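Chain A, query sequence.
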Amino acid sequence: NQAWSTMDLATEISGSDPMGSVRARLNQYWAEQFQRRLVATIQGVVADSVANHSSDLIKDDSALAFNASGFLAAAQTLGDHKGMLRSLVVHSEVQRVMAENDLIQYLPDSSGNFILPTYKGLQLIQDDEVNEPSAGVYDCYLVGAGAIGSAAGTPAMPLEVERGALKGNGGGSENLV
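Chain A, predicted structure.
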């Protein structure tokens, strides 16, 4: 759970609505949290592969910059299951190299507004939490359909606003939980 608080006096003095800003950014906050957990989960699977399975999930082309040949070699380790791949998770520096080499295709979403980066048909997910095991060398992760699952609950009170009239020397406060 997360909670945010603002003091009414700060709102009056600043002439802005800090709690309104928090509310507006909640969806982005949770999307970022989900992505961080996704990357951490993948890193845990990779660490287990190194520790317990002779690195069977790892294709090391660290001597090369990101390129199609290395990508295809990594995808081929899945054999006939490579068609189940859906996403490629990379560090922003890798995405920069990909963009410089014109390797990224941008697709509009169903409304035509948001541009979705893809590489060879896979959704490209950029996250700077991706490991940099040594200087200038970054891990990249191929993610297949159904590799990660999640479920959202339906709590009776997902958001709650609490007023503290006497807080802030009687100026009042608002807490969003």
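Helices lie at 8-14, 18-52, 68-76, 92-100. The longest helix spans residues 18-52.
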